[in-house]
């Protein structure tokens, strides 16, 4: 399947969060009462009053009655906050538009002011000319009347623009105050959401569900890079649908949460900082010089053993073999639950590395030796199917009749003349990409084009790659002389036999008098 390096050390990764007063409820109540700032806040709440009410102090002379004060349920403010955000956004857009209009008005007023100044100079010149000129006096007076009317209209327009500017300035002040309020609400909302994620992560850690959910999503790439570099773990994520942060979480051994108080409080936008919340994560890691084990998955295939249908018992789910030292590691199904051998080069826990294989059934299988150490167990299902590389391992309680069917153009009917295929009780068969196998009790889809290494068969002390499309394993098992042909004994009967054989025999025997007094004895004296 892959290469594996056992984890032989522990690396730590620490994340620190500034803790404000309203984050006291993220930690358990027992820890909350140990922090002075949180303890004073806890004593002022109705929760503390309820605890005192539920556990009143008993007086020997008087009995006091206390009523529990339960605060009203706080309604959800998510919709109101969304409406406030929408109103603030619309107000901000109007402010931007009014700002552009104000700038245009200012430019127009400036141009009008320049025009008025030029006209004022012209009027001064005209007045001087009136004093010195006699002819055309009425004509100049008529022109000055038109100029005065234009000036009055201009002054009125300037006054209107000034009023508009004043109103716009008032609106800008209002929008600025609303923007500040909106920023505060957004900061509070973001702080509440981030605190909620931290609370969920702490709750899961307390339940021993180790996770990294307390890390901000913007910091995850850097965190992943640091952890991968420290643990020396490689990931094969080319065909993986699992996030790499989920794979890294599989290496978590332990997590610890600590609170470090500060000497003096620091004021921030989120509140007063009373300390630091420290998350310490312990990861399993491996050295680069660690020996590499080749991982194999073991799939016991059921077969007929006399009148019964059995399979090899006490077989591990996975096994790792070091080709240089011939050491091996075996995983049961429960031990391999936290591992992903196809995607990760190491696991959180590694079973003991073994050196002696001679007295093991698996060693006898790999060396093609007589299977004297192997045991079998009953298999009750009528059909067993498992994919092994490009082949299908099929085991049934009897022979099975099948037909090969092409899966292309299934929307149209087709008349075919395919020969019937009879599968033995145990067989290894290959289906081509466009050909499927339809049998009486199961269906085998066509496998894609052959990729990767081929499957090898150990037989007669040789390892040969399987190049055939069909192998009759039933005949091979029946004609194999290495199988010891041990009689089949059910597991419950075997347990009784082991119990009887391991029970020590009594050393004392019953005497003649004890035999007479025994309730189940019948004796006669002649």
Task: Write a brief caption for the model.
It contains eleven helices and 20 strands. The chain is of the alpha+beta class.
Q: Roughly how many Å is the radius of gyration?
A: 44 Å
Distance between the ends: 81 Å
Arithmetic mean pLDDT: 74
Which strand order does the major sheet show? 1-5-8-9
Number of continuous helical runs: 11
Question: How many independent structural domains?
Answer: 2
Beta-strand portion reads 15-25%
Question: Which of globular, elongated, flat, extended, rod-shaped describes the shape?
Answer: elongated
> Biggest sheet, open or closed, and with what strands and sense?
4 strands, antiparallel
> What is the assembly state of the chains in this entry?
single chain
Kindly state the number of beta strands.
20
Which structural class best describes the helix and strand composition? alpha+beta
Give the helix level as a range of percent.
Answer: 25-40%
Low-confidence stretches: 55-74, 510-526
């Amino acid at each position: 399947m892959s290469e594996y390096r056992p984890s032989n050390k522990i690396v730590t990764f620490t994340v620190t969060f500034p803790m404000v007063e309203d984050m006291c409820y993220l930690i358990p109540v027992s820890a909350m009462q140990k922090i002075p700032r949180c303890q004073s806040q806890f004593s002022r709440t109705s929760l503390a009053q309820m605890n005192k009410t539920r556990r009143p102090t008993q007086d020997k002379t008087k009995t006091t009655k206390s009523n529990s004060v339960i605060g009203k349920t706080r309604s959800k403010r998510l919709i109101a906050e969304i409406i406030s955000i929408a109103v603030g956004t619309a107000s901000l857009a109007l402010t931007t538009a009014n700002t552009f209009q104000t700038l245009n008005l200012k430019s127009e007023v400036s141009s009008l002011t320049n025009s008025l100044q030029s006209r004022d100079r012209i009027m001064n010149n005209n007045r001087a000319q009136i004093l010195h000129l006699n002819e055309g006096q009425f004509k100049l007076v008529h022109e000055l009347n038109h100029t005065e009317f234009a000036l009055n209209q201009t002054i009125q327009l300037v006054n209107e623009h000034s009023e508009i500017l004043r109103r716009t300035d008032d609106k800008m002040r209002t929008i600025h105050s609303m923007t500040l309020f909106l920023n505060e609400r957004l900061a509070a909302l973001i702080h509440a959401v981030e605190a909620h994620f931290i609370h969920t992560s702490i709750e899961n850690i307390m339940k021993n569900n180790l996770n990294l959910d307390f890390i901000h999503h913007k910091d995850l790439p850097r965190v992943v890079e640091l952890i991968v570099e420290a643990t020396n773990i490689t990931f094969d994520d080319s065909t993986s649908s699992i996030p790499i942060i989920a794979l890294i979480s599989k290496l978590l051994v332990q997590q610890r949460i600590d609170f470090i108080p500060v000497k003096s409080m620091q004021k921030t936008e989120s509140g007063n900082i009373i300390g630091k919340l420290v998350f310490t994560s312990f990861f399993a890691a491996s050295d680069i010089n660690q020996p590499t084990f080749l991982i194999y998955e073991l799939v016991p295939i059921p077969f007929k053993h006399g009148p019964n249908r059995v399979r090899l018992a006490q077989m591990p789910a996975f096994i790792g073999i070091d080709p240089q030292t011939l050491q091996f590691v075996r995983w049961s199904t429960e031990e391999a639950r936290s591992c992903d051998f196809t995607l990760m080069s190491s696991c959180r826990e590694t079973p003991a590395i073994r050196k002696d294989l001679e007295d093991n059934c698996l060693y006898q299988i790999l060396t093609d030796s007589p299977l004297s150490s192997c045991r079998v167990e009953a298999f009750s299902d009528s059909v067993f199917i498992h994919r092994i590389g490009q082949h299908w391992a099929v085991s049934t309680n009897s022979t099975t009749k099948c037909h090969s069917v092409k899966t292309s153009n299934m929307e149209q009917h087709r008349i075919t003349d395919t020969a019937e295929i009879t599968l033995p009780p145990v067989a290894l068969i290959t289906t081509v990409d466009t050909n499927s196998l339809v049998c009486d009790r199961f269906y085998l889809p066509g496998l894609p084009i052959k990729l990767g290494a081929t499957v090898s068969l150990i037989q007669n002390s040789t390892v040969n790659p399987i190049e055939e499309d069909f192998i009759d394993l039933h005949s091979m098992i029946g004609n194999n002389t290495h199988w010891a042909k041990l009689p089949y004994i059910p597991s419950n009967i075997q347990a009784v036999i082991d119990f009887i054989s391991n029970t020590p025999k009594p050393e004392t025997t019953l005497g003649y008098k004890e035999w007479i007094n025994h309730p189940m004895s019948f004796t006669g004296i002649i």
